[in-house]
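Protocol step 4 of 6: structure prediction from sequence.
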Amino acid sequence: MPHDLQKKGNFPDFSDFFPSLFDDNSFWDRASLSNAKSNFKADVHETDKEYEVKVDLPGFDKENISIEFDHDVLTIHAKRQSETSEKNDEGQYIKQERSYGSMTRQFYLKNADEENSKANYKDGVLTLTMPKLSSEDNKKKQITIE
């Protein structure tokens, strides 16, 4: 009974079917790089009494950071724009650059007390402390039918 065995070299390599997934400039590398440019790093720590959110926002002005809390969703939005220019002795532009960008992150923080929350921005790090509502404040409320 003869066996029709073939050497490995006769089969196409899996990467031949999906070469872009295995290249140095793969889709996954490009996706992670673009994601890194449009998002900021954040740490969310939860205890029994509060949430603490730390967000890295180096290079942003405090005035260009907004924080919103609506229906248990914390939204942090930051934008920046910068313009630089260099002129020669005659006042002609040698180089002029502009860059604009914005980033937004959202976090689901169930039972957070927005009225007693505090935010601090120092050395490029935004720190939010959001106490949790007491269990009495979070209890279901019965609505009576008239």
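Step 5 (inspection) to follow. The chain is about 15% helix and 40% strand.
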